[in-house]
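Risk mitigation, structural track. In case the binding assays with flavin-adenine dinucleotide fail to produce interpretable data, a predicted complex structure has been prepared as a fallback.
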Amino acid sequence: MPLPSNPHLNQQTARSVVAASAAALGALTIALRYWYSKKGPGAHVGDPATAARRVNGVAEDEYDFDEYDVVIIGGGTAGCALAARLTEDSSIRVLLLEAGKSSLDELFATVPISYGQMFHTALDWDLWTTPQEHSGGVAKYWPRAKLLGGCSCLNAMVFHMAAPEDYDEWALAQKGQEGANGWTYREFSKYMLKFEKYLPSARHPKVDASLRGESGPVEVGFFGHQANGTPKFIEACANAGIPAVPDVNTAKGTLGVTKAMTFINSSGRRVTTEFAYLTPDVLRRLNLKVVTRAHVTRVLFDTSGSTPRAVGAEFTQPSGETFRVKARKEVVLSAGAVHTPHILMLSGVGPADHLREHDISVIANLPGVGSHLMDHPVVDLHFRDKSESSIAFVAGKSLAHRLKLISALLQYRLRGSGPLTSNICEAIAFVRSTDRSLFPPEEFPPETDPEDTTSGPGAPDLELFFTPLTYTKHTGGVLPPGHYFGLHAVLLRPSSTGTIRLKSSNPYDAPIIDPQYLSTPHDVSVLVRALRLLSRIARTAPLADMLDPVGADDAALDHALHTRDDAALAERVRRTAETLYHPACTARMAPRSEGGVVDPALRVYGVEGLRVVDASVFPTIVSGHTAGPVIAVAEKGADLIKADLSKLKA
Ligand SMILES: Cc1cc2nc3c(=O)[nH]c(=O)nc-3n(C[C@H](O)[C@H](O)[C@H](O)COP(=O)(O)OP(=O)(O)OC[C@H]3O[C@@H](n4cnc5c(N)ncnc54)[C@H](O)[C@@H]3O)c2cc1C
Ligand SMILES: *[C@@H]1O[C@H](CO)[C@@H](O)[C@H](O)[C@H]1NC(C)=O
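Fallback model:
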């Protein structure tokens, strides 16, 4: 963002002060980096040559390396949790293969506010969708972390478990198949509590700690920064009719507005699943091996029996060397909602016609692989902030900004607090687009109500959130100079679904991602309602006091949104919708006859010895954030695998 420098300084002084502050900033950054590098137990990660067989011209079946029971592909949000839980049983030997490296020494995967700094770097798969016909005609950027811990290293750290009804809907969609009931909220929520360790906060005394997890490995709480605008947003929402609630993560449901609980620990550190689960103690287990920079190119199958059986994996290292490894009992895909279906298709499991187009021999015809892609589109609104309380200085280049940043760095280094612990998405609200108290019938006639796609009468289809700075195109766009806050509308229950397809049979080619954003009138109309509501909240006290009318007529800003008609709002929605980074459902748990890819035990249909444990298995996208639900899926997945392996033993 181009920002003006202080006009009271003459250029000469300005230049030398800038140089000095830049130097100080550099020194502090180095100090921070050094401080963190002291902590990283990254050295426990294994050498691939001791974990797998080098492949140099040997026959297809010569990869026997009898060391592992379970090979997990993808050491991301789910993969790290799964590896740690499985290896609690010392009789289960686990190999975890991750394409990226350890995140522990990565400053930007540690200091909460800095995640955007990893966008488009080597730590990001840097994915793009196809041009979106119904959303501006342009390709949209999809950040995805290439690191141990996966997107838990790159996400906005909002800890949210979605709506209880979401999981009852998941269970119901299994049509009574064995194990379906294990996914109801009543049953599944024990895995939510299992991973969580809630640290109570004096600032949020109304949170009932007895309803929160207290002894899991993942610390959550309210250790993130709270900008001046954040409580004002919460109050403005309450004044506009959205109840302020202390906790949106309980059996009571998720409707209301609140300060976001975050995956940030009491020292102000981002809590990733690598940090939480792959602790030095866990890495010392003799039955766990972690290999990083291992890009898995396919799952290996034994096709000699009547049903193909997954028996191992092939991976390459950046050096170009190829390795194969055998899984005696299971292969688990935890490569995320984009790469899990990609690897399945590269391995011959997917829509048969599509695989043949790319000369891939079909192991199992499963049309559901890569289909039913769901994501949450978001529309970002920008408002000038008269109170100048924005925390945009963290990315600013002016002298004043640099000086503020230095003080913020010091506060962070010394106390683990301050603006650098902002997760940016600081306050969140969950509402229903047909709530009469928010959308009065005089203004929103019931006959214009969007179709109800929520998972139940107590579940939302919209999320609104506040950011004490603003951005366009994931910080890739430009706004006029100044202080801003952002209000954002998220479509939680889209009726549009998309696909992940192969671009080629080359495993290094990213797959074709087509989320089909806003391809139904429903999706646009729900977001138009959200824009109306946000526009009202922006003009409601006390947020209204923050609005700076000066320069607010700029077409890039949204101060005059309430003066526009629905068609203009729909155009705004289509033109500027982006991803909230929640792709899911690309290897969904559903009956096979309904396009499902895995059964309620997360086993892939049509083959043996293969499971999926990550966001791909969501039957339908949850009405909330996805990291927490993914960790809970991994916790349950670990129990399912342990149960099956102990049956084998018996
Ligand atoms: C910018 C951003 C912000 C977000 N904000 C939030 C938030 O605030 N709250 C929230 O709840 N959720 C948020 N999310 C979403 C959430 O983080 C994800 O839904 C969740 O982390 C996905 O977990 P996963 O295990 O399915 O996949 P991932 O965590 O992506 O893990 C997949 C892993 O597989 C590895 N991999 C992929 N292909 C291969 C291969 N061929 N070989 C070996 N390894 C491979 C990847 O490198 C990665 O480590 C955000 C996501 C992003 C990107
Ligand atoms: C939080 O993370 C920091 C930094 O790695 C660590 O030193 C500290 O022990 C963690 N806090 C807790 C309570 O685990």
